[in-house]
Amino acid sequence: MKSIQDWLTEYGESHQNPTNKLVHWICVPTIFFCVVGLLYSVKLGVSIAPGLPLNLAMVLLALTLVYYLRLSPALSVGMLLFSLFCLYLAQRIESSGFVLWQVSLGLFVLAWIGQFWGHSVEGKRPSFFKDLQFLMIGPAWLMSFVYSKMGLRY
Where do the structural domains in the chain lie, given as residue ranges? Predict the structure, then answer.
């Protein structure tokens, strides 16, 4: 199994251009949120607390966090916090009267257009064409920069 540093280094090879990096700082968290929003819209018919129905996002985020935990326990804490923020944001959008899945789908399409444009500027194909796991590494790659800026080890 590759180490987290192996994954981050390999992911970084196709993310050297400053414009592409900026696009990723906007689009990767947006895509992550959109996936959470789309999955949050799928209720599982059980409440985990009064007024808090269990949804598919909660289940799949738990599995996602196990993946991150295996790669880097420290980095998984940051991903947990970001995941909780995404769940909170999804709940707020849904309770505001907007149709969450429609908002999520629209932003998802726009963010992927941005991603592909960023890679056209970079002149390199997105990493996930090589290995689908890179779809999970992108958010961790950004989180690793946050950790570095804060002086935290991952």
Answer: 53-146
